[in-house]
Amino acid sequence: MTAVISADEVTNAPEEGAPSSYTVTDLAEVPTLGGLYARGAAASVVKRPRAGVVLPAVAYRVADVDTADAAARLAAYQDVVGEPSSDVLPAGFLHVLAFPLATAVMVRKDFPLGLLGMVHLRNVARVLFPVRLGDRLEIRAWAENARAHRRGVRVDVVAEARVNGALAYRAVSTYLAKGYAVSGDAGPGTDGGVSRRRDAERPSWTPPLPTARWSLGRSVGPEYGAVSGDRNPIHLSALGAKAFGFPRAIAHGMYTAARALAEVGPARRGDAYEWTAEFHKPVLLPGSVDVAVRYASDAGADVAAGPAGGFVYDGWRTGRTTRHFTGTVTPL
Amino acid sequence: MASSIPTTREAVIIGGNRIPFSRAGKKYVRTSNQDMFTAALEGLVARFGLQGELLGEVVGGAVLKNSRNFNLIRESVLGSSLAPATPAYDLQQACGTGLEAAIAVTNKIKLGQIESAVAGGTDTISDAPIAVGDNLRRALLQASHARSTGDRIKALLPVLGHPKWLAPETPDTGEPRTGLSMGEHQALTTAKWGISREAQDEIALKSHQNLHRAWEEGFFDDLVTPFRGLSRDDNVRGDTSAEKLAKLKPVFGKSLTGDDGAPLPATMTAGNSTPLTDGASAVLFSSRDWAEERDLPVLAKFVDAETAGVDFVHGHEGLLMAPAAAVPRLLTRNGLTLEDIDFFEIHEAFASTVLTTLAAWEDEDYCRDELGLPGAFGKVDRSRLNVNGSSLAAGHPFAATGGRIVATAAKLVHAKAAETGSPARALISVCAAGGLGVTALVESA
């Protein structure tokens, strides 16, 4: 199976804006992640897995983010993920800019899921027109669509960026909180829920021939951590990772997806594009990842290509069939 | 035929000279690209009495260069006994460098811009550049741009905190966009075309046997000048055998999975892949008049050339498959088919590069869908393939390979035409990093 995001995953959400029942709360500026993590970590201790998950009907908004301030950070980001130098912000960099606001939603006292231990399952981002360095952004973020998963609750964290009131970027990041359950659901481990799958039912996966090999050193975690602000200890050191049950530090999933996006490149993804990612087994650092970034038309009939064509990418452990990630980049 | 080719005068091949190719880290340790190219050039000068001669141009290059080698070929000319007024420039097209240099100078000869020229190339693994990492390089550059001692120290301070920045970076054969070595790339193409280990070893065996025989027969006596105590290519093994080659362990393509989920067998070994090599070559070209005025031999005409690139980055095509696209264009433009070619000089980057190229030309679907041909391009008569050996046996000092092949091809068609009394043709095909292919057509003069 090479298909990436099934249609029901993305079309449930409205194409723009938070659900109408949500209230918009303005923040003066994008918060810093360090403080949010401290709050999130502390709150995670209090938040206990339970049934009847209800998300706060609140969207955060920062009305005026000057991207000119991010010039040095953009250059560093481009360097780390392999994007060419450009004043156009790649979708992955917009994700990085909006990420603290999304995190602020997730560390609210009334956000029912603990920040620590949330697993990033998939990400669907759309760039509708290019955002350039110097553009002033309005950024919004909220959580919606809590639903059952085989091992807990899935929730979508949505981030949007507007330039002069026009939606330029929209991303839906789906996280799994293990052990929780949505209201009306019998709870994890039962057979309820429409989109549950058992491991046994997962089709076996055969890696294609690679198009690239990534030799990822230990420094990849701290480097992407520095440009993204996501300094989750599981990415920074083996010690930090061990505390959360990983044998070694793991690469940021979004780093691998951003690098795949960069390997498609600005010339082939165009000004407006959709970029999806689905995360499977984490990449342990250091590690060697075989990657196939292929034309959808070369990847077989089971891959849905957009009308303008597009790319499908896969990453797996070199010499194994351990799948790390998969996704698509499709011009819109 | 050949109406699409404008009429120009001929560019002819007078002869070539190279130094013996030597496996990396052996005879040519502490020998620079400039040393080697100058030696190859001086041998050519001596062979054809060019001392003090003002040539139209000398063009060549090296794939791996030290930063001080920015004007490598001009510096070599200045160190040679050619007239110092002979102009020169460097050119680089990965492994296509030497052949592209020949294309460049023969085009100028054909257009009447110059009368004579030398094209060639050189490469060394033994004296390859070693660079500092980007972090250290940036710190050093920032320090050099600093205006005060304080700023200079400030720029260099981070280096103290990162001793790993001091680790040198050595060049490798990895593709910048994919991180895969050339061998790993070719292993993908080998897998796609299902080329067997036996077929590859057979190509390697032939290459050694043919090159060894050619040396024994004296074919290279007027093509090679001894250098640094070496008088023959030191990679050639006349005594190798299919059994010996079969014993070698695979080195590339060891982690690939087939459609059925089972591991694909790795087939590429050190025996059927070219070794890293040091060496240099040079070829003398001119107008027919220039050669006749000096009573120099005319071996062949450099008729035409074609280059191609392929889309390998996203796996649509194999890295080294561009010659498969270039050759049909070259031959069709000249009104020729594969059957009109007496000698196929297909550079053996890997034995399987030769085999995947031949397989592509025989594949009807591939030729129609990828090359836009009406059907299969044709079959290469294997008895005409690399008859005096190629890179698997001789070695492959990247930019020097084109010159080696052009001189060999010119001598082959000359001898064949003399023997049969009818024109003889050689096709030259060189694959290169970056998905490039450089091909040329040589005909007896």
Topology, pairings included?
The complex is a heterodimer of chains A (332) and B (445).
Chain A: H1 7-11, E1 23-27, H2 33-46, E2 58-66, H3 71-81, H4 91-106, E3 119-127, E4 136-149, E5 152-163, E6 166-178, E7 212-216, H5 220-228, H6 233-236, H7 238-242, H8 253-264, H9 266-269, E8 273-279, E9 287-295, E10 311-317, E11 323-331
Parallel strand pairs in A: 1-2
Antiparallel strand pairs in A: 2-4, 3-6, 3-8, 4-5, 5-6, 7-9, 8-11, 9-10, 10-11
Helix pairs in contact in A: 2-4, 3-5
Chain B: E1 12-18, E2 22-23, H1 33-48, E3 57-60, H2 72-78, E4 88-90, H3 97-110, E5 116-123, E6 131-132, H4 134-145, H5 149-161, E7 168-169, H6 182-193, H7 197-216, H8 242-247, E8 250-252, E9 268-269, E10 277-286, H9 288-293, E11 300-309, H10 322-333, E12 343-346, H11 351-362, H12 364-369, H13 391-394, H14 401-420, E13 425-432, E14 436-444
Parallel strand pairs in B: 3-4, 3-5, 12-13
Antiparallel strand pairs in B: 1-10, 1-11, 2-10, 5-10, 6-7, 8-9, 11-14, 13-14
Helix pairs in contact in B: 1-2, 3-14, 4-5, 6-11, 7-11
Can you give a write-up of this model?
Chain B: It is an enzyme of class 2 (transferase). The complex is a heterodimer of chains A (332) and B (445). Chain A has helices at residues 7-11, 33-46, 71-81, 91-106, 220-228, 233-236, 238-242, 253-264, 266-269; strands spanning 23-27, 58-66, 119-127, 136-149, 152-163, 166-178, 212-216, 273-279, 287-295, 311-317, 323-331. With 332 residues, chain A is an alpha+beta fold. Chain A has one domain: Thiol Ester Dehydrase, Chain A, CATH 3.10.129. An eleven-stranded mixed beta sheet of chain A has the order 1-2-4-5-6-3-8-11-10-9-7, covered by helices on one side. The longest helix of chain A has 16 residues, at 91-106. The model of chain A is unreliable at 1-14 and 186-198 (pLDDT under 50). With 445 residues, chain B is α+β, with helices and mostly antiparallel strands. Chain B has helices spanning 33-48, 72-78, 97-110, 134-145, 149-161, 182-193, 197-216, 242-247, 288-293, 322-333, 351-362, 364-369, 391-394, 401-420; strands spanning 12-18, 22-23, 57-60, 88-90, 116-123, 131-132, 168-169, 250-252, 268-269, 277-286, 300-309, 343-346, 425-432, 436-444. In chain B, the strands form three sheets. In chain B, strands 1, 2, 3, 4, 5, 10, 11, 12, 13 and 14 form a ten-stranded mixed beta sheet that branches. Chain B is globular, with a radius of gyration of 23 Å. Chain B starts with 11 loop residues before the first strand and ends with a strand. Chains A and B meet through strand 7 and strand 9 of A and helix 6 of B.
